[in-house]
Amino acid sequence: MTIDQDLPQPVHQTLRKLGINSLYPPQEEAIRKGLFNGRNLVVASPTASGKTLIALMLIIHRLAQGRGYKHIYLVPLKALAAEKRDELIGTMEAASEIIGWRPRVAITTSDYDSTGEELGNADVIIATYEKMDSIMRHRPSWIDTIRTVVVDEAHLVGVADRGPVVENILMRILAEARGTQVLLLSATISNYQDFAHWIEGEAVVTNWRPIPLREGVLYDHEIYYSDNTFKSVPRTTGEPIIDKAIETIEEGGQVLIFTATRAEAKRRAKKIAKQLAKLQATLLGPKTMKELRRLAERVKNIGESTKLSEELSNTVAMGVAFHHAGLGLEHRALIEEAFRSGLIKILTATPTLAAGVNLPSRTVIITYTSRRTSGYVEEISVFDYKQMAGRAGRPMYDKEGEALIHTTRELEIDTLLDRYIRAEPEPITSRLLDGENMEIAILSLTTETRGISLDTIHSYIDKSLAAIQYHPEVLRYRVDRAVKTLLSYGMVMRGELSGREYIKATRLGSRTSQLYILPSTGYKFYTKTREITEPSELGLLHLICETRDMVRVNARKRDFDKIIYTLEDMGQEEFLNMIFDMRPAVDYDQDLDLLKTALVLLDWINEATEDEILEKWGVEPGDLYNLYTTAEWLAYAASEIARIAQAEQVAKMYNILRGRLKYGVKPELIPLVSIPGIGRRRARILYNNGYRTPSDLRRATIQDLASIPNIGVKTARKILEYLRAERPSQA
Prior knowledge:
This protein is of the alpha/beta class.
């Protein structure tokens, strides 16, 4: 549809200014369903069908109606938040001349103990789900000025970890009825009626894509499409997946190959790179090969050198890369950008990429339809398949996208076509009743309201997706059980006001909610820190690892002896006895996982390199980052809860441990490593060369520091400029 004057003038003029002259069908439908009339909407349409523009049009419209209100754009990942910030800033620049003022855009993705007051001057806020949930628990002064909430990737409501966070946010927005318009965006929601009912709005549902998608099954060198047509793939190497990838590259496209495991992603990338090495000159050309060699060097030089980064560098030089959560953040970002720019031609990845940043490709090949989980083999869902297949087709580059499931069994062709390609995704269900999610929701309500009646709690829960999908009695029972649990933890207390009973958060409950930790974690920290008489580094780390908030690494069979020898060398009889206690097998395995995680963190804070940890424990850089950043936050939470428990010595030790976990250093390096430009390796070198405090560095010259190995003139100048700009009291 061509943009016409029926659009609100600020929206119409801003789109013209941005060079947008027509709308996609989902955008037209959203307008018809009440986008500009205050109607809540759930938009379920394929990837790249223009959902983001629907959100941008709504925000422009709401901003044009007046100043002093907040418009929130929620995303699941920090990387997505950065993408949306750039889009919103550009849009707001275009809109500012038209609406007569410049809206301020802010992004917030971390520090869950921040009150959010610093966002008071922002008009548009991009936040991760968890950060917004945390802000609402702190109730900043501007919280009642929210007038728009956009939820990107809304299908994640059905995911165990993130779903209840989104549901909790929307439940509170809907229950408080402050005139806030809600817009849910997703590529994959089959039970959209439930979502429309939940938000008391309308559903915009379409299968329209700007880039048509062909789906089929790749068997041997034949592709069997869902429309009952088929075609042959040229035999170049004899490997169907590699040959299909080569065909796509020859036609000017890129290929995304999904694998079930990290090891498989790496193995396939190395195998494909080996084959491409023979064809690289004719397939890629000298200019691209030169750029790839430069990129491979960058991969080697980012962060600490590890065997994993070396393997990645070798495949990148051939135009192939692998991507999974075990890679460091910088490596992942570099690979994503290289693939997005078209330099990397083939990317092998685990399915987490399908739920992450937007990386479309002409061809998507899915190499598996079942995976092993907790010792069992289970089929992937139709939902998972659709998420991966949806990455096929690059807007502005491709006339058609192609999503293929690879099989080595001819008998599976028809089954795969019917089971995945022609099937509808499974319904998305609320996870609010799972685990501690109801306890979290009720504790946050009592913290925000400073006291709430049971009837009011039920009225809030009635605004959840769970209330649409579960029987009222089931919901009521779960609420009552959650209240009892919180009472037993000492996190809420009963009171009476004007003859009515109400629930109020205690100091422990309020702080637990604000710290963004599970109620069981807050309770464990409170009870355990009071019992600690002789704190040790391993003991404090072990307590963090015991909590359900902490991520853990799996102990392999080969780790058993390593754990025993390490504990023996440390003289840790307490933990050795724990291992040799007679326990059920499942607890035994969990204890080993827990101990391994604590020992990995212990190595990290004692300055073991990423490569040493990878070689010793098999923990990849990305996983290590996840471990120590989570542990750092939990160390802070433990120190705060320990103060409530009046365990001051433990609180102080956890506070020191927090800094060590953040930087991966021994205590003496914390003052140095806090200075920008000094990582933990440089901090150790400076310390060993007599520069032990910021004051020592301030007295040095650029030449003094530049003469030290691994420092150099550029870094020396940066260090001294920073220190001399600081007040002496901060040295």
